[in-house]
Structure formats: structure tokens, C-alpha cells
Amino acid sequence: MTSTPVDLNPADAARVATAVLAPLVAQGAIIRRPRATAWAERHQTDRTARKVLAGLRARHDGAPLVLRIGPRRLVVVTEPGDVQRLLEGSPEPFTPANREKIGALRHFQPDGVLISTTTDRRYRRPFNETVLRPEMPVHDDGAAFTDAVRRGAAAMARRLHDSGGLDASTFTDTWWEIVLQVVLGPAARADRELVDVLDALRRDANWSWFHPRDDRLRAELGRRIESYVAVPEPGTLAAAAHAAGPVTAPGQVPHWLFAFDAAGAATLRALAVVAARPEVRARVLAEVAPGVEPALLPYARACVLESLRLWPTTLVVLRDSTGPTTWGERTLPGGTGFAVVSEFFHRDPDRLDHADGFAPEAWLDGRNNADWGLVPFSGGPVSCPGRNVVLLVTSHLLAHLAAHDLRVERGRYLASDPLPATMNHFGLRFGLRVGGSAPTVEGPERRSSA
Ligand code: HEM
């Protein structure tokens, strides 16, 4: 393995730009574009991207790959050791507040910790940790969060049994009710306008610096969030935020709302595999039992993690160097961009026996956690502080929905390994199996309430 970055020739740089980076940008880094995501699935763009990067890694003996995009120098790493260096070296000398991310996130969360200066990060990161409690598998307010999930799951179940089906858009409507209740409280549950404003700003954010900022709409988002944070309802992230620092809170909440969108997509994809594989469904249901409230549900959590490994929602983890950095025999100037392309590391057959398979066990036995290439929630000092809240909420929703004997359309692609490289979650649709066990709406709620 070579650690000295290598400049790609123009043809190879163009292949990385068109086969690896362009599909990620086209799908939308901040909010997915449904048509582009469907196109990506049709062309299985992640498979092509992985092939291109694997070929270049082999040819250049694992050296970081340097390409020029206009005036910008971007280094694409291909070895887990380089991922570790970048993530452990954050926020200095590798800042997460990189050029492209600031361009995008300033549209709706200019004060968010992820794009903060190192000085502001010193109080914003601890603030986020105080609210989100990343060290706790089950948050102090976990019971309130899983209550919100139970309510949402019951609503989804009603739609499923009334109409015979559940599609991605129906799922998403109710998912936002759960998210609004967890973050802002029951009074916010029906505030679709807040989600619409956030989505509009996220669509602008997809264009990063190429789109002007809509300050009027951003102020509208801020007003709505502040109205809930000012008089917070107990058992919500808003209440924890109000207690931790009412002045800091409104600037951080937009990130929490935005990031829950990815958790919904991950749950939908995990549910598709659960519906296609009776043995996975049986294991999800087996760990649901009356007992301590709210339960940890390790296997269901591992299923969501596996969904995030196979189909990462953070398509690329970006860093900019804050000063000159030496890599092997080369020193790269400050301001160099670095990219960790998740799909490549997450399914690398050179490192992972289960690269294209569904193997939640690898999260349970510690194999995946020890691998610096597997970074669905990033790693190091800037890793996602919301990870455990996400896994709590999504694992409970998965368990509730798994109680129904679901059939997923196009399920044969998911019933066995290898799993498709790209999965368009917007296209997922579930029905009830004919002749299968169809529990009453109340049944699964009670069973999985533990
Ligand atoms: C499936 C859902 C989610 C995934 C896959 C995810 C993933 C990530 C990743 C990869 C990062 C780091 C990005 C980087 O290193 O540049 C991150 C940061 C962050 N996430 Fe999440 N996230 C999710 C949901 C959430 C939720 C629901 C919250 C809050 C409720 C949250 C809060 C944060 C915060 C505050 C940061 C910034 C951390 C910092 O800058 O120090 N995330 N997330």
C-alpha cells in the first residue's frame, strides 16, 4: 500500500467525476430527488462507481487519488487507514465545515455545528451531546420517543389494512409526524408546513453555492422552530434543548429535523429486506417481548445499521484541510478537499466477506464497528451524536411494522444475496400477504411496545 497521493490523469479524473461523483450530486446530497434516484437504481450507479474506484485503488496501490475539479483539488481516499486519519483528525486539521458543505447547509442551518468554525464548535458540539445523549443506547426520553413511534406505527397499520398497501409516500407522511413529535412535541405533529418550508430550503441546498439563499423562507423556518422551543413540551428534544441552552437551541434544531429524513429512508429499506426474508422477520419479532420499556432491540438496530451500510444515506463524507498536511512523501496545501465515498468502503469485497449480503450479525459481534471503512454515522470527534436516538426510533418502528405479514413488491431481488447496489426507496411499496398472518391493528402495538 502506498500513502503518497497520486494525481489522476485527465481520463481517470473524468471517470471519477462522471461515474462516482456526478450520480451522487444528481441524486441530491441534502434532499434526494426522486426522479434522479429512480434513474440511479435503473443504472445501478453505485455498482459502476465501486468498480471505478476499486480499479484505481488496485492500479495505484491504495494511494489517495487526487483530482482537479475546476480550481478545487479533491483527494478521494481508498484505504480505511486514510479514513481513520481524516475522521480522527477532525475538526483540526480536517474540518467538517468544508466548502461544499457550508455552501449547502447555510441555506437552512447556518449555525449548525457541522459547518461551524472550530471556535463555535467548542460549545455547539457539547450542546448537541447534552441533548442527544450519544453515549446512551436508550435516551432519557426514550419512552416518550417510542410512544411517538407506537402512535405512528398504528397510523401506518391503519392505512395498510384499510387500503391493502403502504407506499413510500404514505410512510413518509406518517414518518414526519413521528419526527415532529419526537423533536418538537405533539403540538407540532401536524405542522406539515414546517416540513414543506424545510424541504424547499433543502432543495435550494442541493445546489450549494449555485443557488442564492432564501432569507425570507429561512426566517420562516426559524420562527416556526422557535415557537415550539420557547414553550417546549416535556419528553422532546426541544425540551432538552431548551434546558441545555435556549439561545443555542434554534440554530441546531434544523439539522435534527433534516437528518431524521435519512433515518426514514433507512427504515424503509430495512423493512423491505425484512418483508422479503422470513428468517430476518422472525428474528426481529423474536426479540420483542414484554419487559423493560423501552426495549433496546439489538437485532432490529443491527438491521437498520445494515440498511445504512448497504445503502448509505450520507453518500460522501467530506473534509477540508485547515493547513498543509503531509501524506507519505507529499505535502498538500491547506484548503485541499478530501472525500470518503461511503458506497465504496461499505461494500468492499476485499475487506468484507458479507460485502453484498445482509448480515446484521456483523454489527452485533463487533466486526463492523472495528472497521474504519464502515462509517454510516461517520467516526471520531465529529461522528453523529444522533446515532442512538436514530437507532432507538427506527428499530422500534421496524419491529412494529414487522409484526404485519408484509409483502414487498419486487421482493425477489431482496430475498437473497447479493443485494442490489442501488435501491430507490421512493419506489418501495408493501402489501399484505394473502393468507399470511395479518394481526389486528392493536396486536403488533401491544407486542412490540416493550
Ligand atoms: C440515518 C440517520 C442519520 C445518519 C446516517 C447520520 C449520519 C451522520 C454523519 C455521517 C454525520 C457526520 C458527517 C461528517 O462527518 O461530515 C452526522 C453528523 C451529525 N448528525 Fe447525524 N445522522 C443521522 C441522523 C441524525 C439525527 C436524527 C440527528 C439529530 C436528532 C443527527 C445529528 C447530527 C449532528 C448534530 C451532526 C453534526 C455533528 C458534528 O458536527 O459534530 N443525525 N450524522
UniProtKB/TrEMBL annotation:
This is Cytochrome P450. InterPro entries: Cyt_P450, Cyt_P450_sf, Cytochrome_P450_monoxygenase. Belongs to the cytochrome P450 family. Gene3D superfamilies: Cytochrome P450. It comes from Promicromonospora kroppenstedtii.
